[in-house]
Amino acid sequence: METIYGAVFDHKTETPGLGAEIKEGFFQEPFKGKKISMAAPHFAVVKGGAPTTEYSVDGITGGTITSKGVGEMVDRTMAIYLKYFQSAPKAQK
Question: Is 0.85 surpassed by the pTM of this model?
Answer without folding.
Answer: no
